[in-house]
Amino acid sequence: MSKRVGIIGAGVSGLAAIWCCLEEGLEPTCFERNNDVGGLWKFSDHTEEGRASIYQSEFTNSSKEMMCFPDFPYPDDYPNYRHHGNLQEYIKTFGQKKDLLRYIQFETLVSSIKKCPSFLVTGQWVVVIEKDGKQGSTIFDAVMICSGHHIYPNLPTDSFPGNYLHSQDYKDLEAFKGKRVLVMGLGNSGCDTAVSSAVIISTRSGSWVMSRVWDDGYPWDMVFLRKEPVFNDELPSRILCGTVSIKPSVKAFTETSAVFEDGTMFEAIKSIIFATGYDYSYPFLDETIIKSRNNEVTLFKGIFPPLMEKPTLAVIDSYTLPTTNEMMADYITYMDELGSFIGAKPNIPWLFLTDPHLWDGARNAILTQWNRTVKPTRKRVVSEAQRPHPFYNLLKMLSFPLLLLAVTLTFY
């Protein structure tokens, strides 16, 4: 008899989990609180409690070649960075083509996940659900949590006494047109919100802000194979033109203004948008299973609770990127390591000897990815684009700070 696996959430990770379970001969059942797949990328014009959300104009920060299912690439003419509606369509199409939707119970809320009384022997779990006002429970041999951990908005305790909201509640520009708005936070959400509506951004530590597009129209994450710092194509020009200003942390609020740590003040504020992230939480799990401490969770490789007696519960797609410097660590190395753990990292030379047909397909997919990447931006051929050379581009990126250092030492 096949082992039963409970999967929480039908976003990108949830669909991948269903797919992998079927490939391994397991019996998956996925629970999704909404009426469709997509998870975070399913846009809603209202805020849902216990769920991070996106806004109407949101685009991805990862390019299509770095953010697709391995055997289900995006169409060539799709833009490299996609609007949320475009991505939602891709996710749903993947689920339909792989016949995964029949394993999903929609509009079903998971209220708790508990160890079976016989857990020390069987490693089984009891998943309690709520659907149509009724409660039920099912026993599973393993559980895969694919619902994300961005649950509860992180709002400062000394919030502005006037009108304010968290970026979770921000949906579009209309409500803020012509108003003096302060955005707290310089992450991706803060930057995207700022270029839409704000005149002041308050940041505690600053950040590197870079364009999504690198030389010859190639995406940044393909050229350097890294997870990004903060990407925004409009913010630098807005700052140069003076329509957006950067300030340090807020020292104090008054009824209608904010006083910054440098002593300056932003007055007549109509609203504040707190782009201050979320608190990590798994509300359906007891803290004895996964405990959050200082807004971090302890998981082996960001996946397995290390103190579990039986390794039958995994948190999928939970890898946390703590600081900008740590975020610059090689993303591909991490993915290769995870692939090696499960035997999914291909050995290209060995594949050539054992399965030449599969080797040829893999080779073509790898060698043609650069052409697929620039195709949406090439409406006519002007000159042949050169494939990026990461080492050369890294030297070019570092040349300016090195030149600046040399000039400083010369006049020191």
Describe the structure.
- This protein is α/β, with parallel strands linked by helices and 412 residues long.
- The protein folds into two domains: 212 residues, FAD/NAD(P)-binding domain; 122 residues, FAD/NAD(P)-binding domain, CATH 3.50.50.60.
- 27% of the residues lie in helices and 20% in strands.
- It is built from twelve helices and 22 strands.
- The strands form seven sheets. The protein has a five-stranded parallel sheet with strand order 3-2-1-7-22, with helices on one face. A five-stranded parallel sheet has the order 9-18-10-11-14, covered by helices on one side.
- The chain is globular and about 70 Å long.
- The protein starts with a strand and ends with a helix.
- 28% of the residues are buried.
Determine the CATH superfamily of the largest domain: FAD/NAD(P)-binding domain
Largest sheet: 5 strands, parallel
Shape: globular
Mean pLDDT: 78
**Share of helical residues:** 25-40%
CATH architecture of the largest domain: 3-Layer(bba) Sandwich
CATH-defined fold name of the largest domain:
FAD/NAD(P)-binding domain
| Span between termini | 76 Å
Strand content: 15-25%
Helix tally equals 12
Structure classification: alpha/beta
Total strand count, please?
22
Radius of gyration using CA atoms only: 24 Å
Neighbour order of strands in the largest sheet:
3-2-1-7-22
Uncertain segments: 319-329
**CATH top level class name of the largest domain:** Alpha Beta
Number of domains: 2
